[in-house]
Amino acid sequence: MDLDALKDAVINGDVKGCAVLTEVAIRAGHSPQKILTAALVPAMQVVGDKFRCNEVYVPEVLVAARAMKKSLGLLKPLLTQTGAKPVGTAVIGTVKGDLHDIGKNLVGMMLEGAGFEVLDLGADVAPEKFVQAAKDTGAQIVGISTLLTTTMLGMKDVLQALERAELRAKVKVMVGGAPVTQSFADELGADGYGESAAEAVDKAKELLGIK
Fold this sequence. Notes:
About 55% of the residues lie in helices and about 10% in strands. It is of the alpha/beta class. The protein has 2 domains: about 5-80, Methyltransferase, Methionine Synthase (B12-binding Domains), Chain A, domain 1, CATH 1.10.1240.10; about 90-205, Cobalamin-binding domain (Rossmann fold), CATH 3.40.50.280. Strands 2-1-3-4-5 form a 5-stranded parallel beta sheet, sandwiched between helices. α8 links the parallel β4 (about 170-175) and β5 (about 190-195). α3 (about 30-50) runs antiparallel to α4 (about 60-80). The model has no long low-confidence stretch (mean pLDDT about 95).
């Protein structure tokens, strides 16, 4: 069996198809690493490219990401058994005082689809929680999201907390969300900014030197 059908199922957001085709691929002897790198990662790349070109919108991307997550759920135990290492570890969360999480969830799912290990702290996350999670996981990336202009400055608190914990030099901090701009990210001293989930994934890979 080739893996194109699985790749198409992810792109089309076919959750049931993804589950079945992943099982078939495993039974056909494809390694979990190959299924990830030859089907799931390229599928999310296609979805990301389409999103950038306005060929699909957030609902379609969410549906594709959910389908990918279904497949990934079946592969994860096998990837763990084979000792396959993720390409990187990211801790993500929405800043304290902000309960919005759709954009952040999307970034998390797409990072997973690109081979990252992701710890999602949820919404309304205190700076100390970001720091503790980065310490516990040895994360290379900390992603902070916000949707409200009133909580934007909370991102600065997270950066300062990482600084105090002497982690700032060890992690790449990425920021995003509707009110955030590249110039605001520069002003904060963040390492990266993504206008969309697809751009955020590209930026995360770029920051870690992943081709």
